[in-house]
From TrEMBL:
PANTHER family: 3-(3-HYDROXY-PHENYL)PROPIONATE/3-HYDROXYCINNAMIC ACID HYDROXYLASE, FAD-BINDING MONOOXYGENASE. GO terms for biological process: 3-(3-hydroxy)phenylpropionate catabolic process. It comes from the Bacteria. The keyword Zinc-finger does not apply. Pfam families: FAD_binding_3. It comes from Novosphingobium arvoryzae. This is 3-(3-hydroxyphenyl)propionate hydroxylase. Residues 5-342 form the FAD-binding domain. GO terms for molecular function: 3-(3-hydroxyphenyl)propionate hydroxylase activity; FAD binding.
Length: 490
């Protein structure tokens, strides 16, 4: 194949594509991002990212600026039409294992501006706007992709092509990848508003499980607030988006004068997963690979997690530190996690979207009784560890998420130890680390503010050392020499 224009060609310049570009470039790959639009889409879409995604943004230098435009809230409530609590997810404003608040309510255009600003400062990556993908052709060791651009048709050649191009994904279609439909399809009206008086709005996120009209009410960043109203049988998009209809929907919230309308749109909330996330040198990420209903707030989060999982692997392969087979771990690691979060979102959606009054009353009585008996699944949302893939199976903690320890002064361990893989623990003198792995002895000065927390983590697992991957999932535990040997073999 002729000389490559880049190692990684990403189709789609949204949050997933740009984050992937930033991570892959930081780990050694050259990257081009091609986006069909001229500018960032100016209206809100995603409304939430969690602590782990904020940690990923931290890894590319974007977290502080994103946090400055975000809001937090204490909890996420599912209520009956009369206001009784059916389900409450606590701790949304508390710092999660990723070292940031568990729930961060965002304004997506603001997030994208920050990420693109970081991309402009990254020498190994570039963004090409108004480049519309039209076709691809795979050859041994690479991909040719064709684009329509302001200057006519252009072709780029890369070692890998990643489709981060949304739910309709022309890349997925061109690669012949099918979707597994998980049978959730509900139309909802989404109303985004600019807030003028926060005191007149709910301070927490709400799901109103009212059979007359299931409704979502959530905070957003940058002075916004969102309502979502389920469409009822017989209603049309034209009817429900009429200004008078929207005003009638908002009237019970008593927000006239407190907010002004910014956007109204009808969305179909779906649950789908691509059957293949890799086909030769073509990969999928974000909405191109999976789509989830919004009830768990994990749509954008899942795409950013894809970027974190895939980016360091592409970088290592590009710089010759790993074999192309490392990419086989991408789908086996990410798909079970995605399916678990989609299942949670579908469960939430099925709880909310009951419109039969008799069934809704039965739901209410069952959930209220469970909560009264202390059997309700209240608390913070937890996600499963990696079950297989690039890890040392059979060792304590392998596949789990390694926490970002915080010092008393608020310093985060990631900022001190850097973006590479870490081997933390008891390290015998003379052990040498391969490129891309930082050796961090428990008695090393850089670890001092977090030494107690790291030592406790190891003690709880009966381990001398832990090898933490660049995406901050645990490769494995054991003695340092064995961990480095196993890492090299993987």
């Amino acid at each position: 194949m002729p000389e490559f224009d880049c190692d990684v060609l990403i189709v789609g310049g949204g949050p997933t594509g740009v984050t992937l570009a930033l991570i892959a470039a930081r780990h050694g790959a050259s990257v081009i991002v091609c986006e069909r639009e001229a500018e960032i889409y100016p209206l809100p879409r995603a409304a939430h990212v969690d602590h782990e995604v904020m940690r990923i943004f931290q890894s590319v230098g974007a977290a502080d600026a994103i946090a400055a435009t975000s809001r937090t809230t204490m909890h996420y409530d599912f209520l009956t039409a009369s206001g009784e609590i059916l389900l409450r997810f606590e701790g949304s404003d508390r710092v999660g294992p990723g070292g940031w608040p568990s729930a961060n309510m965002i304004h997506q255009p603001s997030v994208e501006r920050v990420l693109r600003g970081e991309l402009e400062r990254t020498p190994q990556a570039e963004l090409r706007s108004e480049w519309r993908f039209t076709a691809l052709h795979q050859e041994a060791g690479g991909v040719s992709a064709t684009f329509e651009t302001p200057n006519g048709q252009r072709t780029l050649r890369s070692r890998w092509l990643v489709g981060a191009d949304g739910t309709r994904s022309p890349v997925r279609a061109a690669a012949g990848i099918e979707l597994d439909d998980l049978q959730f399809d509900e139309p909802w009206l989404v109303i985004d508003t600019i807030v003028h008086d926060f005191d007149r709005l709910p301070p927490v996120n709400l799901q109103i499980c009212d059979p007359a009209r299931p409704t979502t009410c959530v905070l957003m960043g940058e002075g916004r607030h969102r309502w979502e109203f389920m469409m009822l049988p017989g209603e049309t998009a034209e009817q429900i988006m009429d200004d008078a209809f929207v005003a009638a929907l908002l009237k019970p919230w008593n927000v006239d004068g407190a907010v002004s309308l910014e956007r109204k749109a009808v969305y179909r909330f779906n649950a789908r997963v691509a059957k293949d996330w890799r086909k030769g040198q073509v990969l999928l990420a974000g909405d191109a690979a999976h789509q989830t209903p919004p009830f768990a707030g994990q749509g954008m989060c899942a795409g950013i997690r894809d970027a974190a999982n895939l980016g360091w692997k592409l970088g290592m392969i590009a710089r010759g530190a790993a074999d192309d087979a490392l990419l086989d771990s991408y789908q086996v690691e990410r798909e079970p996690h995605v399916r678990a979060t989609i299942a949670l979102a579908v469960m939430m959606g099925q709880t909310v979207c009951i419109t039969d009054p008799v069934a809704a009353e039965a739901r209410n009585q069952q959930m209220l009784a469970a909560r009264a008996a202390g059997q309700s699944p209240d608390g913070a949302v937890e996600f499963p560890p990696l079950a297989t893939g690039c890890m040392l199976g059979g060792t304590a903690g392998a596949g789990s998420y390694f926490p970002q320890f915080m010092a008393a002064e608020g310093e985060r361990i990631d900022d001190a130890l850097g973006e590479q893989a870490w081997l933390i623990g008891t390290i015998t003198p003379g052990i040498a680390a391969p490129a891309g792995v930082s050796l961090v002895s428990l008695d090393a000065a850089p670890l001092a503010p977090w030494r107690k927390a790291a030592a406790q983590w190891l003690t709880e697992r009966g381990a001398e050392a832990v090898l933490v991957r660049p995406d901050r999932y645990v490769f494995g535990t054991g003695d340092a020499a064995s961990l480095l040997s196993a890492w090299a073999q993987r």
